Amino acid sequence: MAAARWLLRLLLPLAWARPAACTDPPGGGWLLGTVPEEQRCTVERADASLTYPLFLQRFAFSRPVILQGLTDNSAFRALCTREKLLAAFGSSPVRLSTANTYSYRKVDVPFTEYVEQLLEPQDPGRLGSDTLYFFGDNNLTEWGPLFQQYVPPPFRIPGTSLAYSFGLAGGIRIAGQDGSGSGVPFHWHGPGFSEVIFGRKRWFLYPPEKTPHFHPNETTLAWLHHTYPTLPPAERPLECTLRPGEVLYFPDRWWHATLNLDTSVFISTFLG
């Protein structure tokens, strides 16, 4: 019953506004960044013609892929606008992690406080351990009804089960040549999918046998400014910028780092 009341509270405003549903603010009301987008993409893309056997053969255990058109999450996206999430979760506590490789420190704050006070572009000189980031640690009692509306990618790895991790992070604003954007530096874990709901998110990936050169407490933005330009072409990562509705699959133990170009709403599906 609680889940039904929660969903009804979110859907009623959508029903009343149905004739003007297309007038929702750009980007769901989240702050759009001003950084130019890197057009180069070295991650292979696949559309709805990709079959499950081909996914297992070509990508599941060997390389990342960007999936497009396999699912429709427009209904889930409508529930993730700034207005809707604040209405549903404003008073709920969220657990923030530090934006460094190991994320040791956790801080609990009301969701409204995070959105209105802490969700801001990152200072380029700030260490990852000093930057708080909402990603995962979701209270399933609070967030479960929202996750029930999400349509995950249709592919699985045999013997694994799904676990969702929902996140929201600030993007980049440029003033002259100075910019700031949140993200998580290089790390690795088990396989999974990550879908962008709002905003743009840039990804950098290395295979397990090729450990990237980085400092675990250096932000992705600092790494992009200081280390990335010095890399010979053969040592550069696979990379691409994901837009809303695109899903990245990353195999087991692949190194990856992210940089949010806009305020980004995203959800990952971990295969444990």
General description of the model:
It is a single chain. With 272 residues, the chain is α+β, with helices and mostly antiparallel strands. It is 21% helix and 26% strand. It has helices spanning 2-16, 52-58, 74-78, 82-89, 111-118, 140-147, 220-226, and strands at residues 45-46, 65-67, 93-98, 106-110, 132-135, 162-169, 173-175, 178-180, 192-198, 201-206, 238-242, 247-250, 255-260, 264-271. The strands form three sheets. A nine-stranded mixed β-sheet has the order 1-2-12-9-14-6-5-3-4. Strands 11-10-13 form a three-stranded antiparallel β-sheet, with no helix packed on it. The chain has a two-stranded antiparallel sheet with strand order 7-8. It is globular, with a radius of gyration of 18 Å. Residues 1-8, 11-22 and 175-179 have low confidence and may be disordered.
Name the descriptors:
about 20% helix, about 270 residues, alpha+beta, about 25% strand, 7 helices, disordered N terminus
The overall pLDDT average reads 85
Q: Which percent band covers the strand fraction?
A: 25-35%
Counting DSSP E segments of at least 2 residues, the number of strands comes to 14
C-alpha termini separation? 29 Å
Structural class: alpha+beta
Estimated helix fraction: 10-25%
Spatial order of strands in the largest sheet: 1-2-12-9-14-6-5-3-4
Q: What is the number of helical segments per DSSP (H or I, 4+ residues)?
A: 7
Largest sheet: 9 strands, mixed
Order of helices and strands: HEHEHHEEHEHEEEEEHEEEE
Q: What overall form do the CA principal axes indicate?
A: globular
Low-confidence stretches: 1-8, 11-22, 175-179
The radius of gyration over CA amounts to: 18 Å
